Amino acid sequence: MRRKRGNLFVISAPSGAGKTTLCQKLKEIVPDVKFSVSYTTRKPRAGEIDGIHYTFVDEDEFRAMIADGEFVEWAQVHGNFYGTSKRRIENTISEGFDILLDIDVQGARQIREHFSDSILIFILPPSMDELKKRLAGRMSDSPEVIARRLKNAIDEIREYKNYDYVIINDVFDDALEEMVAIIIAERVRTSKIEEAWIKENFIKEE
Amino acid sequence: MRRKRGNLFVISAPSGAGKTTLCQKLKEIVPDVKFSVSYTTRKPRAGEIDGIHYTFVDEDEFRAMIADGEFVEWAQVHGNFYGTSKRRIENTISEGFDILLDIDVQGARQIREHFSDSILIFILPPSMDELKKRLAGRMSDSPEVIARRLKNAIDEIREYKNYDYVIINDVFDDALEEMVAIIIAERVRTSKIEEAWIKENFIKEE
Hints:
CATH superfamily of the domain at 8-36 and 98-202 in chain A: P-loop containing nucleotide triphosphate hydrolases
Helix content of chain A: 40-55%
Oligomer: homodimer
GO molecular function, one term (chains A, B): GMP kinase activity
Keywords (chains A, B): ATP-binding, Cytoplasm, Kinase, Nucleotide-binding, Transferase
Largest sheet of chain A: 5 strands, parallel
Shape of chain A: globular
EC number (chains A, B): 2.7.4.8
Family (chains A, B): Belongs to the guanylate kinase family.
Radius of gyration of chain A: 19 Å
Subcellular location (chains A, B): Cytoplasm
């Protein structure tokens, strides 16, 4: 085998940067990338499938997993728990598959602490005006909710330097091309090539 | 401007790995990448254009340029001099353009010493057997020439760890896609984004 292990990609973005649509398209274009499935204590919504969108567990199970150190990161949001399993990531990578994790800046930091060779991608909207427009476009949200989201967005953008790549989602197709390019390029990094394969195929000749 | 500077890509490969064809196709696909033009004291061959294939100078001019420290690397091959101008690379990069340099492993090492943020790409044939086949395919070469080239190829392959990326040129279209992906991905590295642009566009808001 030429490749040692798969890559762990972590994607973060402020709300309104277009991350969800980008990730969905990416799934179609690079189907051999796995998407990480989180554990949650939240009840499934209509159309959500256990093991696809989330792995649904009850609070006792979740707390037991915390106690066993099974999560590389977990958080409580609006009373529900969400967590990422270390073992799931490790298994996917060691099988040689890339895995993609969609997570906020705090979660990304925890992932990087545990998986030091993870590759962090940050997605930015083209401008603050455009971000405001995109956030305001959701009619269901109150001005207070929009203002809080904007404040959060700025706080998250401050963290961009912790990321390896920054994609500006101005023209969608360009942003998508950049995301695909990162995944393909990271596969041919020298550190991903099995030294044994090189020796076996070339250097033993002499 | 979002991008600070262009990138310097350095491409090396043992003879027979298919580097020349890859670079030619790359020129068509990513036309905004500039290709470095070397200085040489060799006489132009039929069809070679001054300033396009090489910049042709006489030996006195070349030696004066060496004395002035104008070359980031230079070498003498079969009695002719070849050299890469520091200033040309620096000018291209500072204008925001990527530049690509096709050079052997020794030259690549010198480039990296001077341009520490250069990005080094090594191209491998799929296997030693395939390399032998490709080298033997040139009817004009004697067995001794082929044997020496093979020996050189192995010596060059030993150096692959000094490179950032290793592309295995098995399926040509895949190798080309990987090369294009590296160029696109390296453009969105966090270090290439102007911090001032981020501050101006987002963080000042608060």
